[in-house]
């Protein structure tokens, strides 16, 4: 996008940035939390030459995208932000959405609100040359507004499968002119996942895992089928203890007792919102579960557990170990 066009946008888009009204935990579910300390794979941060080079590709919606200016990137979504920084293009990022909190330097950047509730004016006021996101970004009217304003917008498929994560890394790497770095990240991801699979195959147990998402005692739900929590549980060699529905539903005593989990899995922040394990045991039916009776409560950083980015393999291995450790 030309500097003249971007200058014009500054005068047109004078709206303030959308307030960050959602926590990172909310951004993760039911579809991101304080960043985990586990370091992400990274590559050399030296910028590739882009002088006179236009990178052409299609996004998840089949829209042709020509990327020719990497000077001012806005990333939408914790996964997208983590990938871009891991590829070595973090110095070009001028703003992120509220679900982005890793790596640590992201905390110094302006936020443009939640990726699914974007304000076109707030985003455009930052004069982006390129917006990187997944198909979770919206509303669609805002995304179209970005394109109509002449900003390059690349939306890649939001796919939490192993293959989907690899494709996201490759897609954003291509857009940034960092395909070699992208392949290095994919190779590391596959190595981490292979290590996790080897651990799972050597383990004798397949624990039944109940994932509970909490934002205080008045907002507690459990993960059913076709959720990110189930994906991670299965990759870690566990079994989702909830079978009767898809997505997330409020926790009931009946559901907890019927699930009979060996392990209860939560975000660290979610467990804290209940007042710790004592507060968790006060929820309907929880104290009567095998997990509670044997002290099998596992809490992990939310963005690390369910971000589905370069650290996915590390998170799978950590989860596989924690759901089998005696407490």
Automatic annotation (TrEMBL):
What UniProt keywords apply to this chain's record, in alphabetical order? Answer: Signal
Return the Pfam families for the record: Peripla_BP_2
Q: Which PROSITE patterns match?
A: FE_B12_PBP, PROKAR_LIPOPROTEIN
> Which InterPro entries has this protein been placed in?
ABC_Transporter_SBP, ABC_transptr_periplasmic_BD
Where in the numbering of this chain does the Fe/B12 periplasmic-binding domain appear? 72-327
Signal peptide residues on this chain, from the entry's feature table: 1-24
Which family does the UniProt entry place this protein in? Belongs to the bacterial solute-binding protein 8 family.
What's the protein here called?
Answer: Hemin ABC transporter substrate-binding protein
Instruction: State the organism of origin.
Output: Caldilineaceae bacterium SB0664_bin_27
